[in-house]
Amino acid sequence: MTNPSNSNLQALREELCTPGLDQGHLFEGWPETVDECNERQIALLTDLYMFSNMYPGGVAQYIRNGHELLARESEEVDFAALEMPPLIFEAPSLHRRTAERTALENAGTAMLCKTVFVLVAGGLGERLGYSSIKVSLPVETATNTTYLAYYLRWAQRVGGKEVPFVIMTSDDTHDRTLQLLRELQLEVPNLHVLKQGQVFCFADSAAHLALDETGKLLRKPHGHGDVHSLIYNATVKRDVVPDSGDGTATAQPLVNDWLAAGYESIVFIQDTNAGATITIPISLALSAEHSLDMNFTCIPRVPKEPIGLLCRTKKNSGDPWLVANVEYNVFAEVSRALNKDGGDEVSDPTGFSPFPGSVNTLVFKLSSYVDRLRESHGIVPEFINPKYSDETRRSFKKPARIESLMQDIALLFSEDDYRVGGTVFERFSYQPVKNSLEEAAGLVAQGNGAYCAATGEAAFYELQRRRLKAIGLPLFYSSQPEVTVAKDAFGVRLFPIIVLDTVCASSGSLDDLARVFPTPEKVHIDQHSTLIVEGRVIIESLELYGALTIRGPTDSMALPHVVRNAVVRNAGWSVHAILSLCAGRDSRLSEVDRIRGFVLKKTAMAVMDCNTKGESEAGAPSGAADPAKL
Fold first, then answer.
1. DSSP string spanning 109-124?
2. Is residue 601 annotated as involved in ligand binding?
3. GO terms for molecular function, please (predicted)?
4. Which one of 177, 316, 325, 541 has the fewest CB atoms closer than 10 angstroms to its CB?
């Protein structure tokens, strides 16, 4: 949209002052005409006018939607019916090599080369005590691989170099995400970084737009539901005539390009859940087997746990059934109203809620997803969640804005036309990093998962160990925590640490892991040891008592580096708690250390490199095992 003329701005100002919109407070004390306005006033009007670039119908429609949502918000939550979804499938164990598991994993892995990946990365780590973007957090501190690198490298390994990968950013994260991508130096030709805009805030229940202390319009993110409209509106340039050489190109919708290239599925990933790379192939395979258009990734949910529930619902008796996420606070109220024995206290004999919990890894049949995008323009149902300052429900404690959720696109998939279901994985597959240590301590005290940086790293190592044990690797270690964090609120176990990069582990399937360890019975890794494997490596026989890095070739045409009859002993690594809040503020500790509550002391590391003969001994990397940190 081009810059508006003064007449455009005057017309908008007059429209906003009509009784239906009632925004006259924005222009109090202003001159009568825009021609007489100063630069600051023109800038505010231009901001209002340009809002139509990101919101259908512009600011006027946004205010109307605000009126409607605020009126509805004051009513009681009302559902005509709420039931268990019929299409719920139990995934086989992630760490048992059964025939069912192998068949599903292989089928899903084969589908990954026809899959589009979307990473919702609009969040900062402030809630964790981390000042940068969440995708720059390391999955683990053994190799310090960031979540962004972890997802991108895996997607390219399973989907090929040309894999379509979308990252949704926000104003807070966009520049830092681009900087991180430059630092990673990954060549991803079909990477699309789409930035969501921010929406205006309302000051009260009359939907008056809020101004900040400087007189500018207050804005906040619209929520991760924007990812769908961003994808719908994204375009890509392609040659009109392939190989014509005349440079002629035309822009076409990105989703059309994906369909034309033969992609069949699209997967949405949250910013910090490394376990998603293990669940996605199973979800893809089950989606294909049961002809699902949308497949929610779920876990068994503890009653009152603060995650959404997958439910079959209808708002009114004549409405079509929908299978969608219902937020936990809404579920408790609706369930109690509809069922005599309802509420969120109800559990089945296992101790879990009968309704599975949705963890926001979403799998779609691409053609069905695109159909819904074209119909809706990517706009998903919105909501508003104001906090009122008193019982009159007129004033807000702080300005509120209209929001949307990525998973609410399910509300556009009616049961009459689409098959929507969920795949339930064991709880251990869900490894998000979304809480500070202090918040985690409170959750653990209530019987919930900690879901913090400390448990995210520990769970990542444990999932790898369990899957290696499933292929026959004889790992023996205590289940007791090695270190306690958050003022001894809970403990985590890290060792033995085994990290295989994506060149080594490929898709990460059990069959791929078995190719790395073809004779697992000949491999012994002590319970206090660390093994890091990079590149194409086959480990036939190894005894490890300490820390070892093995580096093989990265060229897919090169023969793998074979480790045979190796014995390694050294001082290895150890883990130490950050003992006090004072130490937690110590400038010699990084934010990554502080939000975990522990540090790895990297005393010694042996290195086997395919480019050098034999084995070398390396001390700790600079700064990684500084005793002053401990």
1. HHHGGGEEEEEE---B
2. no
3. UTP-monosaccharide-1-phosphate uridylyltransferase activity
4. 316
